[in-house]
Design goal:
With 350 residues, the protein is an alpha+beta fold. The chain folds into three domains: 66 residues, Uridine Diphospho-n-acetylenolpyruvylglucosamine Reductase, domain 2, CATH 3.30.43.10; 153 residues, Uridine Diphospho-n-acetylenolpyruvylglucosamine Reductase, domain 3; 106 residues, UDP-N-acetylenolpyruvoylglucosamine reductase, C-terminal domain (Uridine Diphospho-n-acetylenolpyruvylglucosamine Reductase, domain 1), CATH 3.90.78.10. It contains seven helices and 19 strands. The strands form six sheets. A five-stranded antiparallel beta sheet has the order 6-7-12-10-11, with helices on one face. The protein has a four-stranded mixed beta sheet with strand order 1-2-5-3. The termini are far apart. The site of flavin-adenine dinucleotide has 32 residues, from strand 3, strand 8, strand 12 and strand 13.
Length: 350
């Protein structure tokens, strides 16, 4: 195990903002993790587990230990004529796992193509896109408890998955390091293409015989049209979650703003409001300050044009939160993890 001091985090976060880690430990193997836990006394306050840094905003330097999970392996651990269990290590790039599966004809994961980040971070916020969430395919999450060094396996049911959340983001935050996930995929040719223009894109691509690979390619094309590539323009995808509000609140808003975009939820009495619509209506879409701004093609994406800081992005996020609260009485909650700030992250509305 190697410990590096005063390590540059700028290339390790998708916003590309400057930040330094007091101590940085790359973890390539399970033995590295064991050595790290045996050597260093960690607490919630001085440890941050880093994957690809695609959902993390550093608003300053990090005083403590950044552990970078770089475990890499993908293997099929069980296979029948209809189903397959695939185990992937936490440091594997998520899209690499998707491609591995679609190439082999394993379905269920194709709608999650091109989501940036690592396998180990995926359970944290139950990543989702185009009508599918990780919880739809997860079998189990393998972890190591940081305080004891003991292995613990979480069944899908015990992960408490919800909209962009899980037990690892809430009650067990920073208590377990995810080492692997196991997903269940199917071989039957069933697809979810009713969402977000997938069917239209497949038609435009001239696809006649549906395959997991074709759906994956359609989604890659759609995502490239809508979202900025962090390698070119710093961002972390959706900065805020879509807020859930009581139905009566939604009805009042709909009367005042007939163009309001909202979606039903599984929870009776709650409606999900489009955060992008709220931000656009509040006048922020395309807004640019010196170094940061709101993406002109998607109001939910805050971007870093270069030369700025995490604090500048956070200040813009606060401005958006304030205006949206004033106009709609809705508190926007960040989806992005903010390291070194005090944005509240437990209630979705007031
Ligand atoms: C352009 C763009 C588009 C995006 N689109 C989507 C989308 O469609 N859907 C979606 O859900 N998300 C999306 N995101 C957000 C992001 O891709 C996901 O949140 C992804 O899971 C982040 O992975 P990461 O490895 O980069 O996480 P990081 O930012 O490194 O970490 C995120 C959180 O996970 C924790 N963590 C990381 N690894 C581990 C581990 N091994 N054990 C325990 N905790 C760990 C970290 O401590 C942190 O709390 C997008 C981001 C970008 C930049």
């Amino acid at each position: 195990m190697q410990i590096l001091h005063h390590h540059n985090l700028q290339p390790l976060n998708s916003f590309g903002v400057p930040a330094w880690a007091e101590h940085y430990i790359p973890l390539y193997t399970i033995k590295d993790i064991a050595d790290f836990l045996a050597t260093i006394k960690v607490s919630n306050h001085n440890l941050f587990i880093l994957g690809g840094g695609n959902n993390t905003l550093f608003v300053g330097d990090f005083y403590g230990y950044i552990v970078h999970v770089l475990l890499r392996n993908i293997e099929v651990i069980e296979e029948t004529s209809s189903k397959v269990l695939v185990k992937a290590a936490a440091g594997v790039n998520w899209h690499e796992l998707v491609l591995f599966c679609v190439e082999k004809g394993y379905g269920g994961i194709e709608n999650l193509s091109l989501i940036p980040g690592t396998v180990g971070a995926a359970p944290l916020q139950n990543i989702g896109a185009y009508g599918v969430e990780l919880q739809d395919i997860i079998h189990s999450v393998e972890t190591i408890e940081l305080c004891s060094g003991k292995k613990r396996s979480f069944s899908a049911a015990s992960c408490a998955f919800g909209y962009r959340t899980s037990i690892f983001k809430t009650t067990l935050r920073n208590q377990y390091l995810i080492t692997d996930i196991v997903i269940t995929l199917h071989k039957e040719k069933k697809f979810c293409i009713t969402y977000g223009g997938i069917a239209e894109k497949l038609a435009a691509m001239g696809v006649k015989n549906l395959s997991f690979k074709a759906v994956s390619e359609a989604i890659i094309a759609l995502r490239k049209e809508k979202l900025p590539d962090p390698a070119i323009l710093g961002n972390a995808g959706s900065f805020f979650q879509n807020p859930w509000v009581p139905d009566n609140h939604y009805q009042l808003l709909k009367q005042a703003y007939p163009s309001l975009i909202a979606f039903p939820t599984h929870h009776q009495g709650l409606t999900k409001i489009s955060a992008a619509w709220l931000i656009e209506e509040a006048g922020f879409k395309g807004l640019r300050t010196a170094h940061v701004g709101v993406y002109d093609l998607h109001a939910l994406v805050l971007v870093h044009y270069g030369g700025g800081t995490g604090k500048e992005i956070l200040d813009l996020a606060h401005r958006i939160q304030q205006k949206v609260a004033d106009m709609f009485n809705i508190k926007l909650i960040p989806e992005v993890g903010i390291i070194g700030s005090h944005i509240p992250s437990t209630t979705a509305f007031f």
